[in-house]
Amino acid sequence: MRKELPKIYDPQEVEGKIYQAWMDANCFHAEPNPKKKPFSIVMPPPNVTGQLHMGHAMDATLQDILVRYKRMQGYEALWMPGTDHAGIATQIKVEEELRKNEGLTRYDLGREKFLERVWDWKHKYGNRIVEQQKKLGSSCDWERERFTMDEGCSKAVRETFCELYDKGLIYKGSRIINWCPHCITALSDAEVEYQDKPGHLWYIRYPLADGSGDITIATTRPETMLADTGVAVNPEDEKFKHLIGKKCVLPIMNREIPIVGDEYCEIGFGTGAVKMTPAHDPNDFEVGLRHNLEVIRCIGDDGKINENGGKYEGMDRYECRKAIVKELEELGFLVKTEDYSHNVGTCYRCGSDVEPLISAQWFVKMEPLAKEALRVVNEGEVKFIPDRFSKTYTNWMENVHDWCISRQLWWGHQIPAWTCEECGHITVDRKDPTCCAKCGSQ
Amino acid sequence: MLDYFYPTSVLVTGYDIIFFWVARMIFSGCEQMKKYPFDKVFIHGLVRDDKGRKMSKSLGNGIDPLEMADKFGADALRFNLITGNSPGNDMRFYVEKCEAMRNFANKIWNASRFVMMNLTIDEVKLPEKLELEDKWVLSKLNTLIKEVTDNMEAYELGVASAKVYDFIWDTYCDWYIELTKGRMQNEETAIAAQNVLCYVLIQMLKLLHPFMPFITEEVYQALPHMAGDDAKFIMLSDWPVYDERFCFAAEEQNMENIMDAIRAIRNRRAEMNVSPAKKVKLTIATAEKDAFTAGAPFFLRQASASEVVVVGADEIPAADGQVEVITHAARVFMPLAELVDIQQELERIAKEKAKAEGHLKGIEAKLNNEAFTSKAPANIVQQQRDQAEKLRALIAKLEESAAAMSK
What is the complex's ipTM, to 2 decimals? Predict the structure, then answer.
């Protein structure tokens, strides 16, 4: 007896029932099958914090269409599902809950207890987005569902880190990184959103050390002048080339700093002279390397002025900015102030202004990796559909910077590196070491 | 697992993720696995609101897909997201379109129920003898299968789904079902018709399944299946394949010519306000005498014909008292006297004209009143002016119709 269709089509009534029937009959499962050709899609894992939004719906629908089509064409079709632990996003969510419900921070709990809370949260809510994908009809092989912090993934991350480290492709370096003082972590270039914001350009004169005059610089971040270690001008600049090699005196800190010639300076841009703060600006850092400028850091991880800021120590960076401008004015060093709109990097998660800071972080050397990654696309082994996006990819890959992979977070894969308290040597290992590889101390 | 499935076939993602993920996956795969991670990267655009803005919390313009699924069905949401969109480009989300897709789902449901009403077959097998309309629909289905498959291979999912939609709605529901109604009365011919109806329905459901999995599965479960292809679930059944044997180009063309003529007749009758219940004699002058003679029954059912006479292309009846409808393959003549009761029609036109003139007089009085034009808001005044224009046009048309009829 074949079933009859009711008069009205009621999706609510039908969908759940049908999906369950598919699950019960294991319709979504795939196994290596020599009699069939494989077709596989790995789902870009949505964040475990995620609520299904229209973008997810689009993604899921497209993938499901392809998988169902290929399955019907006789392929062994695998759609591999999973969720992403989403380091910063998840941690912030749990911290927020902690703050709201218990008035505590993660430091109050300590790392171990805090992580327990995060896993709890994951078990409670992490499945939500999976259930939502099922509601849309996603024919994923749910038996094989993965989580980016499950045992397999954690092992793979550790193995990969060690391999790359051994090959010299991972290193600990000093770099200007994008620092979010609110989230207290480094951000990769891709996690910084640039916005045009209104600000000011302050023109400040630095007196020459020999008393023969001044050199005037213009800056949007006067608080960083506390860490200036040089002034740069373009070597071809008629206005300034006679000053190259001389010294000038940094107001307020009263430190003598050299005037150097570097092509980075654009003749006629601003005043033509640029203050150099190697610890606080990526370009200044490069110039500093070229001319052996000192590296002094004046802003701490918390966005406040540190011990190198003299009497401004402890002040919030923006409060300091106001105070310094006032003092410069009173002392007669402020030449003029202009309204100025400039591009500011903000943290993609919390929106705070990102502070470019010198910091010891872990990096992946990209140049050797980019070669092969470019080849496979340029030679058509990996195709983009539509084709025009391969340009987007190659442009980025050709200009890629080393990848900062370390974050100051608790929820995530820990970098398998130990620093010896005795000799300072760093040991990187797949297994937790018991003694220092260099000096042997425990 | 890795040996069999890696590299994977395709990565699907938005263009905003290329740096975050795609690039990192590619170099990681190359370095760690010594082989790139996926053959293709399929890029889609963003879903924007109906005004073209990005959906964001701050704008409060986000639309919850689960809400849409609850309201209109997951199938309707899925179909909405795909149809009419091209790879790599952003799309605008219109809630009305979701509603329209829900109506489409209902149409499929109703058509399926109709086919299943009084179904006497347990298994679907194409009959030995195929009628003209059977060959027509099977030929068109064949072409659809080829085109949709090609589109899918090229990742043109929006184009593919639109073609399936058009076939289901126009070809199957609006025409084929109607064309078979004649055969359903007779037990013998009914079996043949049922088989073709089910066959085409199943193939359509299969083509639609990747886009609208739920409704297609539900209907499939209720239908008899094809002999030799008895998959328990449509999601595990065989994808339709193009078959040379179902290429009936001549029959397709003949049927299209007949349908063109039927459409033209219906349109003219609608223009003239003739009720479908009123049957009139048709004289069809055409070079395709055989085709139109074979198609005569269709004119009887679909074009409200009382009688169909097919003559050669040069055997045109006298023009007097005939309403002529022209298509590229035929000229159809209908006697005016049979179409309309001229006196009644003239009276009706006169009544309508009088009503319109009265309405126009009222509006003109308002527009001539300075107190109104100066005090009322500008858009209201414009509205009245537009309304007056419309009425003047209507009156002119009515006068034209009356004149034509009095000839």
Answer: 0.85
